[in-house]
Each structure stands twice: as structure tokens, then as C-alpha cells.
Specification:
By secondary structure, the protein is of the alpha/beta class. The protein has a single domain (about 1-225), classed as Alpha-Beta Barrel (TIM Barrel). It is about 40% helix and about 20% strand. The chain has helices at about 15-25, 45-50, 70-85, 100-105, 110-130, 165-175, 200-215, 235-240, 265-275, 290-300; strands at about 1-5, 30-35, 55-60, 65, 90-95, 135, 140-145, 160-165, 180, 220-225, 225-230, 260, 280-285. The strands form 3 sheets. An 8-stranded parallel barrel has the order 1-2-3-5-8-9-10-13, surrounded by 6 helices. It has a two-stranded antiparallel sheet with strand order 6-7. Strand 9 (about 180), helix 7 and strand 10 form a beta-alpha-beta unit. Helix 2 (about 45-50) runs parallel beside helix 3. The longest helix is centred in the middle third of the chain and has 19 residues, at about 110-130. It is globular and about 60 Å long. It starts with a strand and ends with a helix. The mean pLDDT is about 95.
């Protein structure tokens, strides 16, 4: 199992390079950056990380397809992949934060439309990254004998599809090299929407759905964990974190998306995730110190 960090903090505070180097030295094998309005650009910090790491995997978790034209997305990822050959993954999702669409003046379409558009973007972007000259016309973008030229990567770039809904997981099962599980349902109007599959049972159901549609095709898996805290008071820690949220504390005390408890407890939960087939556990940056502590415990 690989352990990864999803960057959330500013990168201009002077210690970004030191943070990335310390994560790699401590056993963190991957760095992911999301594509959210109000966060840092995903590709610039990944390029900086490529220059100061040797083995760390780098990728987007995940690109919002509605923010990009496929040629520009392929150019950005192809350039990054040249800086770190064999270490880059393109992660794409269907977009779930309606407030970001409103801020950009974009229509927040129904899930079926968003996934149709995402599928078209994935098709075109992957063909461009493979070195093809692409001609394509649809309701969202056009390409006319478009090719990346000098931005074409020298090593294939794996594709990750991340999300939770049936359409997204079906696309990931049939097209992606990696499927990322989030545990929440988008489009409900809430900031992080409905935590519909946050339980072990929910995760197992989503994984089984994906595997059924993969039909024997080899697909790696990623899990985005929302919280990791090493503590002797998990109830108190979770209560403070939730602050009156819509999910009960009891539902998070044994939950794959919130690993809160002793080092031994979290180690056992990670082993449980590995046993059901999770290949990469990703945590947000504020949970990185706790994850590093657990990794050290596992090594001991």
C-alpha cells in the first residue's frame, strides 16, 4: 500500500520544498493536488515537487473537467510528465462544488451531462497524451488535427477517475488505470454534499460495483481519507471536527474515511483497507504529521 498527501496549504510560505522532501523521506509515496477554485493551481506545485523528489508519484486528485479544454489539460500534464517521467498520473472527476461553477459563470449541469462531458474530455486528453493527432467536435469543445508536439510525454501517463456515483465509477472501471473513492454523493447543494458511502459497508459496495463493471480488467484503487488523528480521545477529536455536522460521531468511530484513534488502531484500519484491495491511501495535508507517525509505528 502506498501513502499519499493531498496538498491544501499555500505554497508561498517558504517551506513548501522542505515539506515535500520531508514527506518523501518519511515514507509518503505520492503527492496529489486538487483542482478547486480558491486553492493553488495544481500543476505549478507538482512541477516544483518533481524537481526536489526522486520517487514520489505526482498527480491531480482530481481535475474538474469543466474547467479545462482537453488540449490545454493534455499540454499541462504532458509537460509535467516530461519533468518526472513515469511518476505522473492524471486524475479527473465530474465536479461537485456548485459554488465554484457559480463563481466562474458556468452552468452546473445534471450529473449525466457532466459525466458525458467528462468522458469526451478524457477520450481526447488521453489520445493527445498518447501522441495522437486528434480531430473531434461535440457540444463542448472542438479539435482539428490537434497534437501536443513538444509537450508529448515520453512515458505513458496513467489515468485516474475519482468519485462515488455509478456513472463515474463505471467510467473508471472501463477506462481508467486507477479509480479513486471519495465516499460522498455530489449535487446535493451542501459543501461536501451527502456522505452516502462513508461506512465500511458503503466503501465495499462501491468497490464491488466498480469491480463488477471492470469485468476482470486490472484497476488500481485510491481512497481519499478526510481525517487522520492519533489520539486517546477519538470521540472528543471527532466531535470538535464535526462541529454539528450532519453525520454522527458514532458513525465515524469505525470508518474508512476518518482514521481517528491510537497508532495501533489506525494501523489496524490501514491493514483492513489493504486487505479489501485499496492500493493508495491519501490524506489531506493537515493529517500528514499523524500519518507519518503511524508509518513510523508500522516500520517499528
Amino acid at each position: 500500500m502506498r501513502f499519499s498527501v493531498s496538498l491544501r496549504r499555500r505554497v508561498g510560505d517558504g517551506d513548501f520544498v522542505e515539506r515535500v522532501r520531508s514527506w518523501e523521506a518519511g515514507g509518503i509515496g505520492g503527492l496529489w493536488i486538487a483542482d478547486h477554485l480558491g486553492f493553488v493551481d495544481p500543476f505549478v506545485p507538482l512541477a516544483a515537487a518533481a524537481a526536489v523528489t526522486t520517487s514520489m508519484q505526482l498527480g491531480t486528485l482530481v481535475i474538474n473537467h469543466d474547467f479545462w479544454h482537453p488540449a490545454l489539460l493534455a499540454r499541462a500534464m504532458g509537460t509535467l510528465a516530461q519533468l518526472a517521467p513515469g511518476r505522473c498520473t492524471l486524475g479527473v472527476g465530474a465536479g461537485h462544488a456548485e459554488v465554484e461553477y457559480q463563481a466562474l459563470g458556468l452552468a452546473y449541469e445534471r450529473p449525466v451531462v457532466r459525466v458525458e462531458r467528462m468522458t469526451a474530455l478524457v477520450d481526447a486528453t488521453c489520445r493527445l497524451l498518447a501522441g495522437d493527432s486528434v480531430t473531434s467536435a461535440n457540444a463542448w469543445f472542438q479539435l482539428e488535427q490537434c497534437a501536443l508536439g513538444d509537450a508529448t510525454p515520453t512515458v505513458p501517463v496513467p489515468l485516474l477517475i475519482g468519485g462515488n456515483g455509478d456513472r463515474v465509477l463505471r467510467l473508471g472501471a472501463t477506462r481508467a488505470d486507477v479509480v479513486g473513492f471519495t465516499g460522498f454523493t455530489s449535487g446535493t447543494g451542501q459543501r461536501h454534499t451527502e456522505l452516502s458511502h462513508f461506512s465500511w459497508r458503503g466503501l465495499s459496495e462501491r468497490m464491488a460495483f466498480m469491480r463488477d463493471h471492470a469485468a476482470g480488467r486490472a484497476v488500481a484503487t485510491n481512497l481519499l481519507v478526510q481525517r487522520v488523528v492519533v489520539t486517546d480521545d477519538p470521540v472528543g477529536s471527532l466531535t470538535e471536527w464535526l462541529q454539528g455536522g450532519s453525520i454522527a460521531v458514532d458513525d465515524l468511530l469505525d470508518c474508512p474515511f476518518a482514521l481517528v484513534g491510537s497508532r495501533s488502531y489506525i494501523s489496524d484500519q490501514l491493514a483492513r483497507l489493504a486487505s479489501i484491495g485499496i492500493d493508495d491511501v491519501t490524506v489531506f495535508e493537515d493529517s500528514a504529521p499523524a500519518l507519518l507517525e503511524v508509518i513510523e509505528h508500522l516500520g517499528g
